[in-house]
């Protein structure tokens, strides 16, 4: 279907169903229960899941396929955001021109950065990209203040030109929308103790994410994608096979930068403001962690990694000492303070520690990331299944026949 | 004039004159062997043909066109393929993918941004790669990880990948080094068949005299960066200068 093989089609369908049902799936706990704080089904976080999913997906096209580790990808996200906000200031609050422009400008910027950085490989490439990103960050803060708004950043203001939009009534603030549908509008559905929120912005971002995911599958399965994996495997052989590796790496670098720009544009579409911190090197590091956490070089891994990291950032960080004290109220004196102290080290402001520990565990025990965890799980499951029924030889035979 | 004409080539590495006054003419559709002791400059000479090194002096002409200053991929697209001293294949890819890549390079040239169509749907390239694997006797290994192949199979695959590009000139750098006897004999048969059935010129560097004398029509002996003699295998075998410089210290028996 859609030019994909059966396995990829199934993957796309599963991802589509999950994203469409996310408001239900991410809100498993009834409102007001002790576990409700672990619910992730609120618009702001769901939007982040899919937007950073796109960012990681694009990063993975470069890193996962070619092995070129960019350490400055947040620069493209930031440039995309600035481009989007300027479209909203100059043209219209409709998100479509903003999103298109964020992709175009980030792509052009990636041509320049890629052309220079790709003269080197390995650690030197990483450092060049990092240097570009930090330079962009510094420029956004200083010299480029007229374009970037410096430290305060930019927002659409009531008195911006906005050539295509009718003038706003007095006291009305400009809001991003899609032909009249406001990004921030939501519908709530209450069933029993549960409350599910369906947000317009989330669904717009989710549809864009599905398109980006579909394109990423196409790139993975294309001759171009195969050449990129060949470059990762043995660049010398690529060159001595009559292939010019330069344009291949530059092309994927630009595509990857366009994905990042798209993510930046969507961030602005959801929350109409931008500041230079978006381009800080920690933001570039974050996408590296997401991709590796989920499984670099796999299709779905980066999206899962982005989800996991954003979940921890938003949920773990909300758990404060008071909440933990509630959890351990049952424990005898002495023990409870030990437990509270221990758990407190990993939540609240210290959520980075949890991320760090998980990241280390993944690198050491699961170099293939969450996707590898899933694969191993499936294998164990299948094996037990067969043993339990005493069907091992039959199952093997069937498999061979099927192949 | 030969398909490959090397004139007065010299190459210096710091204080070491690796090549000097190398003159060589490789006749079209022949098998030409280059032999010589370790460090004689054989690999360096090949590097000058494929764009890995640029000689300090002299010229290298392939089918009348200079190769100097061209990039490796340009030289390859002109019809020169090279098999390396240690097999250079795509270890992370499957055997079939290894074969698909040169087939794409042959069809699409040095760059083609085909990021939307699937590899599986390119029937012509798929069929070609499959046929090459059949010819190479490797079709049963098509889904295997190339890194997991035996050394002999890796070498076979690399030769197959070069042949898939239908090169006019195939350069081989010690293709049988480190191979078991059986694998070596297979490789000899393979190269003989290629040379007999295809419109191809082969230049081969080899230490194993059995391989050299089984295949070559001409032999150039290189010593300390300079050709000592160039002649037919029969004449080389009895040449006193060659015995002294080279054969004396390696296996002549073969
Ligand atoms: N890139 C380089 N830089 C410096 N010296 C080099 C370089 N490449 C080769 N050499 C030197 O040039 C000389 C010739 O090396 P080359 O590899 O061409 O020999 P060879 O005939 O292929 O030997 P072998 O039979 O061992 O493969 C050697 O002394 C080697 O150390
Ligand atoms: Mg050598």
From TrEMBL, chain A:
One of its GO terms (molecular function) is branched-chain amino acid transmembrane transporter activity. It comes from the Bacteria. It is found in: Cell membrane. The keyword Membrane applies. The keyword Transmembrane helix applies. InterPro entries: ABC_transp_permease, LivM-like. It is a multi-pass membrane protein. GO terms for cellular component: plasma membrane. The chain crosses the membrane at residues 9-26, 46-63, 94-116, 123-144, 200-220, 247-267, 287-306, 327-347, 353-374. Keywords: Cell membrane, Membrane, Transmembrane, Transmembrane helix. This is ABC transporter permease.
Automatic annotation (TrEMBL), chain B:
The keyword Oxidoreductase does not apply. It comes from Pseudaestuariivita atlantica. One of its GO terms (molecular function) is ATP binding. Keywords: ATP-binding, Nucleotide-binding, Transport. It comes from the Bacteria. The keyword Cytoplasm does not apply. One of its GO terms (cellular component) is plasma membrane. InterPro entries: AAA+_ATPase, ABC_AA/LPS_Transport, ABC_transporter-like_ATP-bd, P-loop_NTPase. Residues 4-249 form the ABC transporter domain. This is Branched-chain amino acid ABC transporter substrate-binding protein. CDD domains: ABC_Mj1267_LivG_branched. PANTHER family: CONSERVED COMPONENT OF ABC TRANSPORTER FOR NATURAL AMINO ACIDS-RELATED.
